[in-house]
Each structure stands twice: as C-alpha cells, then as structure tokens.
Amino acid sequence: MSTPLNASLTDDQLDQLCINTIRTLSIDAVQQAKSGHPGTPMALAPLVYTIWNRILRFDPQDPIWPNRDRFVLSNGHASMLLWSALHLTNTQAVNAEYEIVGQPAVTLDDIRHFRQLNSKAPGHPEYRWVSGVETTTGPLGQGVATSVGMAIAEKWLASRYNRPNFEIFDYNIYAVCGDGCLMEGVASEAASLAGHLVLDNLCWIYDNNHISIEGSTTLTFTEDVAARFLAYRWNVLHVGDANDIDRIEGTLGLFVKTKGRPTFIVLDSHIGYGSPHKQDTAEAHGEPLGDEEVRLTKRNYGWPENETFLVPDGVYERFAEGIGKRGIQARRSWTELFDVYRTKYPDLANEVGLMQRRELPAEWDRNLPAFPTDSKGIAGRDASGKVLNVLAQNIPWLIGGSADLAPSNRTTLTFAGAGDLRPEHLGGKNLHFGVREHAMAAVMNGLSLSKLRPFGGTFLIFSDYARPAIRLAAIMELPVVFVFTHDAMGDGEDGPTHQPVEQLASLRAMPGLITLRPGDANEVVESFRYIMQLRHQPVVLALSRQALPTLDRSKYALPNGVAHGAYVLADAPGSDPEVIIIGSGSEVSLAVEAHETLVAEGIRSRVVSMPSWEIFDHQTKEYRNSVLPPSVSARVAVEQGSTFGWERYVGVSGQVIGMHTFGASAPLKELQKKFGFEPGQVVAAAREQLLRQRTEQLARAVPQDLHPDAQ
C-alpha cells in the first residue's frame, strides 16, 4: 500500500520521488536481508528510472510481446534496481505456457523477502524465475555479452520478417554494466564482435564509479575505457552526472538516432551515503549500510527515517502514466500491425508464432539423411554438417556458426540462400564468431532468449573457454546446441593441449545440460532428431574428427535408441548376456569388434551404445534394467576420456578403459595402441570381468563351512 509523503508535487519532484523510492526500497531490502549491494542501486536509480519510465518500449501488462525493448542488468548484484522497477511498473507474471496469470511478477512482499527462499526478488536476476527478467546475470560480463546475441537476433528477425510498411521487429537493447563487467574478457570479445557487426540497436551504459569489491579501481583498472570502445568502432557518449535525468534521456535519444554503430555511454556516478566516511568505500559497495547509516541516508533524501519499504502516493501512478501508457500503446499498435501482416504474409506470421512458442514447423525433419552401411564410414562432424544443412532449410530460424573453425566443425550452411551474417547482410544464417569461444556461447544464449534456435561450434577441448555461458544456458533452460568436434584423440598430432580428457566428465556434471556422443553417422541423425524437439535444455554434441564405421542396422539395433540415452546395440543370439561392453562415440565400433570376437568364442556378450548419460538416467528403472541387467556384474566401459563417473554403470568391480593422463602427440593409431583403445584390450578386459563374475558366483554357491578358506 502506498503512503502519502507530499502532496501537489511538480513533475520534477515526482521524478525525484520515484528515484528515491527505488533507492530506499533497495536500502531496506538489503538491510533486512543482511545481504546484498546497496551502493550501486542508490547510484543508478536515476538511470534506471529514466530508461524505464521515459525510454523503454515495454508493456508491463504483456512483458513478452515480441517487439519490446530489452533491458539487461549486467551488473546483476544490483538486482534491487530491477526488482524495484518491475514492482513499481506493475509488470505482470507470465507462466511456462506464455500465459499472463493476473498477478504481479514482483510484489512488495517479495522485496521484503529479498534474497530469501522462494522470493521473486533473488540475489541476482534470474530468467524464467521472474517475469520481466530478460536474461540471468550475475557472473560479470555475461549480461553485456548476451545482449550482443539479442541485438544480432533483432537484426536477423528484421531482415527476414520486415516488409515495406511492416516494421515487425525494430526494438532496441539496453544493457547496464560496471567496471567488473568491462574487466571480464567475455565483454571485450562481445564488444569487438558487436562493433564489427555495426549493431546500432545496442546500447551499453557503463556505471563509471571507480569502485570494485577490493576498493578503488585504481588498484587494477586504469585503462582508457572510452578509447577502447572507440577502437571497437562504437559510438561513445558521456554523461558527467548520474543524477541528471534530462541529460541521460537526451543521451539515450542520441543512441536511438545513431546508425551504423553500437553506442557506449560512460555515466559518471558516485556511491552516495548519508555519512562522509561511507563515501566510495568497498564495504559500502558490498554490504548492508547498518541501521544508523540507513537513517542518515534517508534523512539526506528527505525520507521518513523510520519508514521501511515505503512507496509514497503518486509513485505507482507516475510509472503508470509513463511506461504503462507508453508501453500499452506501443504493444497495441504492434498487435494491430501484426494482424494486418498476418493476412498479407500468413506464412511469415505463422513462423513468428511458432518461434515465439519454441515450436517446430510441420515436417521439420523431412529429408534427414539415412547413411548406408560402410566399414570405412564417415566422421561425426561430417554427418553433423549434412544434417544441419537439411534442418536449417526446414527450420528457418535455425542459425549458427563457429568460433573460427567452421571448416573443421562442418557448421557451414552451404545451401542456396543460407548466406553469411555480415555487417551489410544481417539476415545470413552463417554466423562467424571469430576466435571468441566465450562470447560465442553468450551470444548463442542471447539468440535463444530472442527465440531463435542457435548452434555454435568449436573443438571439445575449447568448451573450457565457453563453460560459464554454457552453465548459464543450463540455468536458464535454453535450447542451444553446442556442436563440439574433435571429441577425443582424432587430432592426435596436436597433442595434449588439443585432446579432451576431462571435458566430457565435467560437462556431464552440469545440471540441466545434455551431452550426446553419437557412435556413428546414423546416431548423429537421431541425436539431432532428439535435440530439435527440446524446448528447455541445452545440448553438447561431441563429434569425431575421424571417420567412424557406419554400422549395419540390419544386423544391429536401429539407432532410434539414441532417444533413450543408451540402448542394446548387439546381443549374443539366444540367451541373456554374460558380459556387457558399454561404449560411446568412436568406441562404439571398438566395442562391436570386441563383441564379435567374444561371441565367436562362445561368450554371450552384449554391446550397449550409450551416447548420453543424462537421457538414460531419466528413463524408467525397468528400461534401465533391461539395458543393464543388475544380475550381470561383468561390465566394461570404453571411452576416450576420463574414467570419472563410469563406475555408476559398470559398478565398483567393473572395468573402465579410459584416459588417466593428458594424452600425447602422435598419429591416432599409435595413440590408440598406447592407451589401450584396441579390440584386443577390450576383449581381454571382458574376459577378466567374466572370470571375476564366475568366481564370485561360485563362491556364493559353495556353503561357507566347505569353502577352502573357511576357518
């Protein structure tokens, strides 16, 4: 409930009242939580008020309409800025079915419970958890990097769907960042790419307050940031007073008018408090103020010192008259325009609708290849390239590229009309990220948040450079596709720096992320068939550089078992297995060779292809037991990667043929011999397992008092 503070205020006074409401809500929330960052929200309240109530084209009543402007709080520790804005604008909540549910996204009670369990005002902005949050931020630099993906998406959408007199997509992206964001390398990667692509729909506002957690930025950060962004080919503007909302509004207006360059606004601010000793200190930046400082600060604002979570009369109304009225008019105008567009361009309008709901077009999987049996086979990366070229024709909004490795990753779309996404043609489907793996992954997140379906490629070893953004994709439940090739020792001569060992295990450890390591070309096809139907999960696809035999599916099981994560590929005829060999990727054909040898010896062997642990683990217990019968303890797993975690499938007494070092520089066949990835080694391991199992079974069968070791 609002409480009167002053009556008959001028416009300037109402503006200041709203700004101080944002400040004091932030102060009170941090103080009550005894956790958080009050300084930045206090300093940037005028900026956020100006963006939201004077500039942003955003309808709080429909916070997901497609042509809204995007606001990204990259310095996410200042989340109270966003929670205050969402609350004061009465932004409405949207459910997982994209329905407006008739309740606020952030209530005053949520703010009272800032940083507490189940509050819609968590410590950092969280996409999906709170409506109105465009992306999860917190790790510094991620927000601004993701905003570049959003800007690319808008340009691509405009290029494909806009028609004369039908500007269906023409929104802008505003990202607020601080010194910490600009110290992070991912921001530099992304800013370089944005300047190259002339993304004039993108504006970063830099909170130049000279403070980081350890103290003054003079400790570590004395570069000329404005000159750096000029070198990136950005338009650089400066606002010398963070409290001058008219100057802020005018500068943001210059951004809107600037064409051919993204805009970087340097905003000089000071973290301000009631008492002088708190000015510009690290402690003030990252800690609650304390009761006495809260009172002094509120006194400086002319605020009732003992009131908490106060929203004075006129504040809600001021936002309703500003962003509320402007937003609903913009959204209604767009909706009316789109209704006419739908009658004139029904196919394009249908695409927009499908995309917004993360649905697929009819017959999206038509013409997918089926690879014939071939003992020489085809590399996983080559099969992937063929599949992507089919899918990208069937799904217009499937776009992607590589971090300067497209010829190796086979991520280039070669069909007529695919085209390269370049400054002069931002509607191309081939993205060139440059040697920027981290920015590539963050940009992919931004594309996905804009409802495109992105894929991006590099070598599996360089997933380490992209990991923070991959993790955020999993947190946000975004269906992005990471096409990682050179998944093992296939590039043997390049040596340990290029041979992934622990990457598969570490990616499998990431909640919400699916890893898929297909064993032949047809498993690659089925992997993509599974992937494209996902709506809320990112995927790492680990693909071979070298050719893998294409298995005879008239002899072995069909590859659609990939959809279950693991399946019985081969069995000895006629009876239950005695020993199970589990493989993924390039080791599946190795397991099959060993299996054939064992069967010829009269050993009842089973081969299980296990392209994905995560998918398999989500199958029913009955299915999992049918693939890996608990009664069969003789098990061998074989994979060119760390053995970590495989004990969950082979048991503590099973054997894993894997990597225990970082590899070596040598031709592939020599490496396979050195590290035991040969059929004979698998056969020997299977025999050992079978002998162990039989010995244990015999020991259990002999009465204890007759056992030779009985005392």
Account of the protein in words:
- The protein is of the alpha/beta class and 711 residues long.
- The protein is 41% helix and 15% strand.
- It has 25 helices and 22 strands.
- The strands form six sheets. Strands 12-11-13-14-16-15 form a six-stranded parallel sheet, sandwiched between helices.
- β11 (398-402), α15 and β12 (430-432) form a beta-alpha-beta unit.
- α7 (185-196) crosses α16 (437-449) and α14 runs parallel beside α19.
- The longest helix has 30 residues, at 315-344.
- The relative contact order is 0.09.
- Mean pLDDT is 94; it is low at 1-5 and 279-284.
Based on the model shown, name its key terms.
711 residues, alpha/beta, 6-stranded parallel sheet, 5-stranded parallel sheet, elongated
Number of strands: 22
Task: Quote the beta fraction.
Answer: 5-15%
Average pLDDT reading: 94
What value does the Rg take, in angstroms?
29 Å
Structural class: alpha/beta
- The largest sheet has its strands arranged as 12-11-13-14-16-15
Q: Report on the biggest sheet.
A: 6 strands, parallel
Straight-line N-to-C gap = 82 Å
